[in-house]
Amino acid sequence: MTDDVSRVLLVDDDPLVCQGLELMLGQAPDLQIVGSVHDGDEVVTAIHQHHPDVILMDVRMQRVGGIEAVAAVRGRPNPPRILMLTTFDHDDVMMRAVGAGVDGFLLKTSSPTQILDAVRNVAAGESVLSPRSARQLLDHVQRGAIPGRNDARQRLQTLTRRELEVAQAVAKGATNAQIAGWLFASEATVKSHLRSALDKLGLGSRVELAVLVT
Question: Modified residue 4-aspartylphosphate is at which positions (predicted)?
Answer without folding.
Answer: 58
